[in-house]
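User: My collaborator and I are trying to settle a disagreement about how two of our proteins should look. Neither of us wants to argue from intuition anymore, so we agreed to look at predicted structures for both before our next call. Could you fold the first one, then the second, and keep them clearly separated?

Assistant: That sounds like a sensible way to settle it. I'll keep them separate. The first protein:
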Amino acid sequence: MLFYALRRLFLVSITLLVASIVVFAVLEIVPGDPARLMLGINATEDAVAALRLQMGLDKPLVTRYFSWIGGMLTGDFGRSYTYSVPVMELVRERMVVSLPLALLALILSTTIAIPVGIFSAARRGTSADAGVMAATQVGIAIPNFWFALLLVYLFAVTFRLVPAGGFPGWDAGLGPALASLVLPAIALALPQAAILSRVTRSALLDVMSEDYIRTARAKGLPANTVLWRHALRNALIPVLTILGLQFAFLLAGTIIIENVFYLPGLGRLVFQAITQRDLIVVESVVVLLVATVIVVNFLVDLAYGWADPRLRTR
């Protein structure tokens, strides 16, 4: 298991290096001068020159890359031009909203999807299975932002059970903070639960057709024992893959939902940075999100090795 983890860690390091080069290169090939783009077309030459000097744009390309990546390794993501504060400070402020939101949505999605997928697989071909598959198809088809607006109308406007938007901060107490995250978490979780439940059902049906499952049944083992002890663990590989991808999506892809609910998270920060042409923030946050996705996939690889020992030798 140790060799398996070290080999995956080496691949993660290479992937992070390549990803940082790609993000840096994409920013470099943006048409025009980044400093002028950030200041606008009416900026004076002196202001543009000062910003170029502040951003280090007067240095060679290779020097700028190593200076940038070295700063990120030490926690220095640069300084936001719009907010006039270090980018890392902005990330910390927004992460306390986005990370709990992503975790809450992932917990809701997993809690709903896996039992539903198991239920549907155990009743393959029945009306219950058909009903579940129809419901999940609807869940996949509905855009999460439309579902979010529907939730706001029902539970915030009509019944007034939870706030319609905004985030009071964790200082206001655990209850008010979680209440402001409930609707966005549900809006994010249900479409993901629909996908995950279909994957769980498909993976279980594939495993249930294997020879060792037929052997277990032939030995007279109860159906529940065959399902939970022999089939479910071997069906977890594709489920873990989807879980890893979903967490990365929930953390990095919440721009629309955070804007619908007016949440001060990472997604809204990226949106604001793009509209305000704050390229330093965009570059740093994108690299951070890419690194998060890669690290999550690394943890999923380790989970693969736990779920299926045969993968440790590959």
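The second protein, kept apart from the first:
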Amino acid sequence: MADFWIILTGTLVAATCGVLGCFLVLRKMAMVGDAISHSVLPGIAIAFLIGGSRDSMLMLLGAAALGLITVFLIQTLQSSGLQSDASIGIVFTALFAIGVILISRNAAHIDLDLDCVLFGEIAYVQWDTWVWNGYDMGPTAVWMLGGTLLLVLTAILLFYKQFKLCAFDPALAAAVGIPVALFHYFLMGLVSLSTVASFESVGAILVVGMLIIPASAAYLLTDRLSIMLFYSVLIGAISAAGGYYIAKWLDASIAGSMVTVAGVLFALAFIFSPSHGLVSRFSKRRRLKSAAA
């Protein structure tokens, strides 16, 4: 049963991050997801200090607020002429450092460990259960991540056309009356919520990996957004299941193994993609040379 809960938790993280990751990749904002996953740390720490509990909704609100602040600061620095990568690096390292200081300074008052935040321990998710009216409802992480996935899917389904147009052509979206900035911050808020929901159970490394790698692999495999979303979730789910069994076989980090499998799947997509893969491009060049000869 422990295997089931671990794989289910990893799959829920992969599905949630995979859906959002597609929009981040299309908007060339993949590293913003990395920045948010680290910069929400001060919001989590402050929420712990105020609420005194890891189960409080205050934690989600604090993380979401810091995520939006991160995006706002990055946008502000970019608009002032600073390069995109420099803006991201400055903001997320500064905010992450503030979070480290808050946790280390108040370690006696908050039940939060930096190793837990960075690496997580998905192997223990089955022990932290939600008890309701005396009934064991299963791991808390599964309910938290399941609720987050439901929220993300509901938001995407309700505003699919708006998110799609904003991702492919923001200028056209603005021209037809879609509030591009509002949907931009809405997407970043969803990324923040997904990140903090996954933090303690799986850590930041798995979150960042699942935000970027499955979506990037799916991007190479199709030119349709709906299919890309499906491929991203599928690749993430395969990575979660395959990574767990590899970690069990090697007695290694589960989160690290899941991201490694995702990386292998991306490499396969990069090589064998029908349209964008190395093999396809090499074949096209050979055909063009043959035709020219």
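Some points you might bring to the call about the second protein. The chain has a mean pLDDT of 81. Strands lie at 129-132, 135-139.
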